[in-house]
Design a protein that fits this description.
mainly alpha, Four Helix Bundle (Hemerythrin (Met), subunit A), two-stranded antiparallel ribbon, 53% helix
Length: 234
């Protein structure tokens, strides 16, 4: 039976979210909103960062990824496959239909009004930037793009939170920043368009993994001795 392809369904998002929030995972593990921000930065950034480099960051880094305990090889393959599918989908969407992008955000209901929570998403996006920090530096130095990057840095960095604590008027603009988030992403996407000119094709399915290949979970082990083993080894 072939592995699923294309965008995650709502049920799959819920399944992935529930797993990422599990108490059995390292405390540093990203939640679903943070993961979407992280993968969005990777999808629209200047370089194509391979999964073997970024997957460990989902769990909090390479050392933390080695502490992830899988119930079975099937669970490891399914969860990793869903993460890779969402990354592939974002790559394809930004290549073919960037205007259709919608961030995955949590929401709170305050006084009967639904409010999007962008903190986790922005933190994830900044982590994606930091993974390839040197390559992202030109956008940090560009005054014209600053207005689009600023809301993300405001909610995604400690310095930004300190700025909001000192300036309550900024915090009061939360709904405005949340609404502008897709436009910010598109502006950043366009900024890096020349660097992505070589990207002509995108796979929509998770890559096949040979038993002697490195495990896509990022542990550094061969697949046959990691997630492809008869029982979980990490």
């Amino acid at each position: 039976m072939s592995a699923p392809t294309g965008p995650l369904t709502e049920l799959e998002f819920d399944e992935l979210d529930e797993f990422l929030m599990s108490d059995t995972l390292p405390e540093e593990t990203m939640d679903i909103a943070m993961l979407d921000g992280f993968l969005t930065a990777l999808a629209i950034g200047p370089n194509l960062v391979e999964p073997g480099r970024w997957l460990p960051e989902v769990w909090g880094g390479r050392q933390a990824s080695e502490e992830v305990t899988w119930a079975s090889p099937e669970q490891a393959a399914r969860i990793t496959g869903m993460i890779l599918r969402h990354w592939n989908f974002l790559l394809a969407q930004f290549q073919a239909e960037p205007d259709a992008y919608v961030p995955v955000l949590y929401a709170s209901d305050e006084s009967g009004t639904e409010v999007s929570i962008i903190d986790e998403w922005c933190i994830g996006f900044v982590r994606g930037m930091n993974l390839d920090g040197e390559a992202w530096q030109p956008i940090m130095d560009d005054d014209e793009i600053e207005e689009f990057l600023w809301p993300i840095m405001l909610y995604g960095t400690e310095a930004g939170w300190q700025e909001m604590e000192q300036n309550p008027a900024l915090a009061a603009k939360h709904a405005e920043f949340a609404e502008a988030l897709p436009d910010c992403v598109l502006a950043i996407h366009d900024f890096w368009a020349p660097e992505r000119a070589e990207r002509t094709t995108v796979r929509m399915d998770a890559p096949k993994v040979g038993r002697n290949d490195l495990c896509p979970c990022g542990s550094g082990r061969k697949y046959k001795k990691c997630c492809g083993a008869p029982e979980s080894l990490h």
